[in-house]
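Dear Dr. H.,

I hope your travels went smoothly. While you were away I took the liberty of generating a structure for the chain from your last submission, since the lab meeting agenda had it listed for discussion. I wanted you to have the full record in hand beforehand rather than looking at slides cold. The sequence, exactly as received, is reproduced here:
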Amino acid sequence: MKIFCAFLLLAVVFFQCSPSDGLMNITPEDDTSTEHPVISHFYDLVSVKRDGLDSWYEPRSQKGTIKVYIHESVPEEDRLIIANFLSEIKELIRNESIQFEIINELEGYNIGIVKGGPLLFNEVFKNDRSFPPSYLGAATYTRNNQDCAQIEKAELWYTEGETLLKHEILHTLGFFHADYADKNGSIMYHNITDMEPDMTENDKNVLRLLYYNGVYGSIVDTVADCDEDAMYMDEVESEAFKLLLNSIIDNDYL
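The corresponding predicted structure, in token form, is as follows:
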């Protein structure tokens, strides 16, 4: 199956570092006075704005049965954390758009997890990625060029800690970092010392919206576009998308 783009890297470090993926803060001018407060958090986590341009990354998500490969490097206590966290996520989403299945073989995975550094990550997933030495974990993913809203395959590595592990899992489900605009707390901050130990209520609501699949259809499919600028929404598309989010929220989805 063809892959739409090479990969997206999302990593965690001890100290705050500048974004390397061309992202900028969402300014107050980008918000509307009528939007629900969680929408700014949604844009921060899922559809961050590109530096210097009037366009936003399109949301993307996993779909269907998500096969989660857990490498032998992951200890039993962390396997339990993973299983419980995936169950929590499934309960939050409240629809049948995704199911999680933990598998023991590497073949056919949608999310792959290793505990260790870049060397083990590259060895297991046959990658050739380089990471700064300050990184404590990272996640990469590719998108499907036949369904540009879908994360085709994602891999993560982490070195320690329940919070870091959950943070990286959320990256594989479509989250960016939360420190571009939102300062109200999140497990998705870039700097591990600033992360909340678990998902905040805003984080949970963003996850619910990202995986919404109700009377308004799928959130990600609404803006999915496989043309040459498929990764981005312009100003008009973004405003229309905000109206859709508000409509879903106004119908008491959250």
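Two observations you may find useful: The helical segments are 37-45, 76-93, 118-125, 162-172, 201-210, 219-223, 235-250. The first strand starts at residue 8 and ends at 13.

With kind regards,
E. W.
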